[in-house]
Write a structure and sequence with these properties.
This protein has a domain at about 95-155 and about 180-240 and about 275-295. It is about 45% helix and about 0% strand. It has 9 helices and 2 strands.
C-alpha cells in the first residue's frame, strides 16, 4: 500500500480521474431529476418579500415669507329687522270711584299745556259729573247741577231791539259778543291732544263704567258718549237771526221753532257760531278715534 502522504505519479492520476467522472455525471443527473420532479409535483415555495426601508424624505424648511398685514375687510351684515315688543311700564292701579278726585287732579295737568284753564273744571266728584251730564246731554237735556265746568262769570246780555210782538213783548237781538264768555272753555278743549284724551278715557273707563252702572245702566258708556257727540255734530246753525224775548227772568227765542229745540241744542246755540264750529271740529276727531278703538283698530 502506498503511503498516503506520497504524491501520485502521472499514471495514478489518470486512473483516479477516470474513476471520478462517472460519479460526477450521476450526481448531476440526479440533481436534474429532482428539479424536474419539483417543478411538476411539488409546491413552490412562496417568495420572501423583504420590505426595503423607504427612503426618508427630508423636508427642508421653506424660507420665511414676509406677510403684509392689512386691515381686515369687515363685510356689512344685512341689517335684520328686529321687531321688539314695546316694554310698557306697569299701569298704575286705579283708585276707587269715591277716591278718584285726588288722582284726577294729578292726571289732568298732563292733558293740556294751558294748565291755568283747569280752574274751569269742578274738581268735586268729577267722574260722576261727567257721566251724568253726558247721559243727560245725549237725551237732549242739560243737567246744569251736574255740569263738569263752572258757569261763566259773565252773564248773557242781549242787544236792545226796536220791534215788539203783538203781545207787546219787546224783541231783543242776539249779542254775538256775549258768546265770547265761552272762549276760555273752547281754548281748554283746543289745548288738549285728541290722542291723549282718548287714552285717558280708556284708562279711567272702569271708573266711568262704575259710575254709569250706578244710574241703572248695563250698556257700554261709550255708546252714550258717542250719541252725545253726534248730537253736537248734527246741530245745524239757524239761517235766520236769533231774536229773543224775555217773558220772565229767562230769555227765550222769539222763533217758536228755535224755542221748541231740546235744551241741549239751545245750549249749543248760546255758545255762538264760531265756538260751535270749533267744538264740532274737535269732537269729530274724537268721535272717529273712539270708533276705531271700539272696533279694535289703531
Amino acid at each position: 500500500m502506498n503511503n498516503l502522504n506520497q504524491p501520485l505519479n502521472d499514471t495514478e492520476n489518470k486512473t483516479v480521474n477516470k474513476a471520478i467522472w462517472p460519479l460526477v455525471i450521476v450526481i448531476i443527473l440526479l440533481v436534474i431529476a429532482i428539479v424536474v420532479a419539483w417543478q411538476f409535483t411539488g409546491e413552490k415555495a412562496k417568495p420572501v418579500v423583504i420590505n426595503e426601508p423607504k427612503p426618508v424624505e427630508v423636508i427642508e424648511p421653506e424660507p420665511e415669507k414676509v406677510v403684509e398685514v392689512s386691515e381686515p375687510e369687515i363685510e356689512e351684515a344685512p341689517i335684520a329687522e328686529i321687531i321688539e315688543e314695546e316694554v310698557l311700564p306697569p299701569k298704575e292701579p286705579l283708585p276707587t270711584l269715591d277716591e278718584s278726585d285726588a288722582w284726577l287732579k294729578i292726571k289732568l295737568p298732563e292733558l293740556t299745556w294751558r294748565k291755568e284753564l283747569l280752574a274751569l273744571i269742578i274738581d268735586d266728584d268729577m267722574i260722576r259729573r261727567f257721566v251724568v251730564f253726558t247721559d243727560n246731554f245725549s237725551q237732549g237735556t242739560v243737567a246744569y247741577e251736574h255740569s263738569p265746568f263752572v258757569l261763566p262769570s259773565i252773564k248773557f246780555t242781549p242787544q236792545k231791539g226796536d220791534t215788539t210782538q203783538a203781545d207787546t213783548q219787546k224783541v231783543l237781538q242776539w249779542n254775538e259778543e256775549s258768546s265770547k264768555r265761552f272762549s276760555l272753555y273752547i281754548d281748554l278743549l283746543r289745548s288738549m291732544d285728541s290722542d291723549s284724551l282718548v287714552q285717558w278715557y280708556l284708562e279711567v273707563k272702569p271708573l266711568i263704567d262704575e259710575a254709569y252702572s250706578e244710574l241703572g245702566y248695563d250698556d257700554d258708556f261709550t255708546n252714550t258718549l258717542q250719541s252725545a257727540i253726534t248730537r253736537v255734530l248734527d246741530m245745524e246753525l239757524p239761517k235766520s237771526s236769533m231774536e229773543l224775548v224775555q217773558p220772565s227772568v229767562m230769555y227765550k227765542f222769539a222763533d217758536p221753532q228755535l224755542e221748541a229745540l231740546p235744551d241741549s241744542d239751545k245750549l249749543l246755540l248760546r255758545l255762538g257760531k264760531d265756538n260751535l264750529l270749533v267744538i264740532k271740529s274737535i269732537l269729530l276727531e274724537l268721535h272717529e278715534k273712539l270708533a276705531k278703538q271700539k272696533n279694535g283698530l289703531n
